[in-house]
């Protein structure tokens, strides 16, 4: 059986994070959604996404295909339903097809948005689904996902030893170090959740870490960093300052002082020193954030909601963000004062004025940052920048 995770209705609501990746390539917890499914089902998975991204994610259909909405996280209940799903059937929830088991022809039609005449079921109704419907769900589900992924990755394995220079508060089985981790003179509290450090992660002296927290392979926690759960620090990220319930994707930097909470930071981002992003309004009221489907700011029903920062965004020193700010792909934000709460992709500037960030300049910046990490900016990357620049143009018309 082939397993395909497809971009469903949630994809637009997850912009700007999904400009540059399939929904199932979003990270929540230690693993991406696709990695979770692959491990839970013990098989490879394909990702069906937008046409301009599909070359990077080839899909091979077979005679029997299990199609799963990429916004769904695996759970015991859902996996049980999938194992019992009969051929030529679709599972719907509130009129939305979330799961299907189809042969190659109907599967291709389904993925292309066509109606498929097969058996329709409603067994998902009443099931406690874990689903990423908006960017906030990434930090809201991060606690549960960190615990689930920690158990999945560490079961039956032994952690590398912890140096005696550290202080561990809580049971030793709630801390796991992969090979090559550097960790000295830090305080780690696992009474509130597990802590995981990936291969070759570096945790410098004086860090205070309160689980659940995970740092991916090659991540660096700068001296004196204060990291509260539920936080994920993606592979090769560098972080410092105060961090609370943040999901960092790979290769991003927040290496200096400043607060970031209840937030999501994409790949290849850089956040300058002493940047602070509010996650709570002064009146303790409901946070409204920009919604791409609605084309305006909408209520989240949340008291705590911080910054959403898309891939390749750059933030200058001492930048201040209002509660629930959304910053698009390859935006470059700087200057005194609070910039608007929604900054479209390829925005240049801040509170004192905004203009379009020239695409040649944006690409040159990305090339330099990636080169510093030994990563080549490819023709595929160039085409991605050009496509997102074009797709996001309508949001920049007001300035």
UniProtKB/TrEMBL annotation:
InterPro entries: Bifunctiontional_GlmU_bac-type, GlmU-like, Trimer_LpxA-like_sf. SUPFAM superfamilies: Trimeric LpxA-like enzymes. It comes from the Bacteria. Keywords: Acyltransferase, Transferase. This is Glucose-1-phosphate thymidylyltransferase. One of its GO terms (molecular function) is nucleotidyltransferase activity.
């Amino acid at each position: 059986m082939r397993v395909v995770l497809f971009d469903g209705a949630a994809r637009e609501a997850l912009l700007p994070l999904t400009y540059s990746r399939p929904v199932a390539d979003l990270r929540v917890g230690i693993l991406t959604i696709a990695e979770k499914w692959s491990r839970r089902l013990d098989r490879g998975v394909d990702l069906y996404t937008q046409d301009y991204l599909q070359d990077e994610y080839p899909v091979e259909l077979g005679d029997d295909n299990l199609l799963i909405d990429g916004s769904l996280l695996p759970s015991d209940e859902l996996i049980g339903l999938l194992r019992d799903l009969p051929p030529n059937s679709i599972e719907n929830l509130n009129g939305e097809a979330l799961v299907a088991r189809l042969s190659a022809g109907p599967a291709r039609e389904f993925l292309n948005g066509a109606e498929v005449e097969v058996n329709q079921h409603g067994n998902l109704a009443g099931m406690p689904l874990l689903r990423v419907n908006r960017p906030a769900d990434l930090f809201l589900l991060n606690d549960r996902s960190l615990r689930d992924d920690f158990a999945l990755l560490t079961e039956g394995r032994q952690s590398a030893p912890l140096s005696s220079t550290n202080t561990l508060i809580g049971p030793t089985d709630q801390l796991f170090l992969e090979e090559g981790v550097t960790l000295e003179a830090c305080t780690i509290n696992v009474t509130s959740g597990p802590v995981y450090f990936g291969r070759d992660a570096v945790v410098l002296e004086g860090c205070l870490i309160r689980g659940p927290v995970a740092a991916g392979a090659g991540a660096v926690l700068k001296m004196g960093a204060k990291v509260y759960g539920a936080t994920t620090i993606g592979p090769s990220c560098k972080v410092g300052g105060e961090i609370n319930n943040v999901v960092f994707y790979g290769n991003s930097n927040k290496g200096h002082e400043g607060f970031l909470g209840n937030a999501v930071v994409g790949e290849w981002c850089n956040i300058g020193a002493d940047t602070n992003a509010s996650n709570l309004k002064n009146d303790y009221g409901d946070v409204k954030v920009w919604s791409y489907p609605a084309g305006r700011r909408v209520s989240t029903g949340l008291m705590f909601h911080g910054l959403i920062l898309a891939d390749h965004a750059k933030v200058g020193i001492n930048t201040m963000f209002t509660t629930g700010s959304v910053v698009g792909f390859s935006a470059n934000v700087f200057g005194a004062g609070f910039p608007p709460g929604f900054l479209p992709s390829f925005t240049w500037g801040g509170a004192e004025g905004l203009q379009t960030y020239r695409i040649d300049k944006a690409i040159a910046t990305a090339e330099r940052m990636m080169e510093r990490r030994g990563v080549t900016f490819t023709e595929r990357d160039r085409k991605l920048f050009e496509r997102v620049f074009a797709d996001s143009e309508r949001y920049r018309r007001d300035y």
